[in-house]
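Aim 2 progress update. The chain analyzed this quarter is reproduced below.
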Amino acid sequence: MIRIVTRAHITQLEHDAHAASERARQTSAAANEAFGEHVRELYAVTDRAERAEAVTLEVGVVLSLAMEELSAAQQELLMKDIEIRRLRQELEGASPEGRTLTLLLHYGESHTIYASREDAHADTATHGVPADRWVPADERPVGEVAWRCEAFIYHAASNGFRRAFLPAPTRVGEAA
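Predicted structure tokens:
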């Protein structure tokens, strides 16, 4: 079979080849651009995933520390609950007659109530007042003293506590 090729046909084939080559170049450029965009997206997603993993690790550490603190707080609450139960049993078993309490005052305001003066002195050491610096109450007004202990004793007739030491009576005016 013989085929006759004319100059017009060769020109048309060259034109078609050039057009196909141009389309291939454009398609290749579009593919390269799409590939580049996908690579950028992949890097961005990978970066977000790595940051999310780092944050997850940090949150895990914080959560672990919080769980440890919660466990310690629960243990402390349990110990306090046990102590409260013991004190309640102790209080329910004994007659309150003659029982004393010590009220710790801070500049005249009630701060804490203790079962004994020694407990009050020991606790105030945590507030910066050494246990060996306590002196008997003087004549200064209660509001002028940083820390003061007042003792109260149970009085059965009134079914309540009264001051163990009453202040000395003072003379009012010149009345006799």
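The mean pLDDT is 82. Helices lie at 7-93, 117-124. These observations will guide the mutagenesis experiments scheduled for the next reporting period.
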